[in-house]
Design a protein that fits this description.
two-stranded antiparallel sheet, mainly beta, binds zinc ion, about 70 residues
Length: about 70
Amino acid sequence: MTTPIEQITVECSGCGHRYEDYHRRSMNLALDDFDDDYIEQMSTTTCPGCGVKRSIGSLVVQEVDNTWVFEV
Ligand SMILES: [Zn+2]
């Protein structure tokens, strides 16, 4: 399943900046045809203070050649 967009507050462990970002906990590509840029945007966060990009850890599920592939 694909979870709705959640607003999250992120505190950067590098510079201590706090900011809000959007995130999806899981994305099922068999149900929703998200492109790579969108998946990247929803599964990572970039600190506006220092520019460091981190993975939030979304679960991405997609079907490849009839095999379910889970990426975290
Ligand atoms: Zn930062």
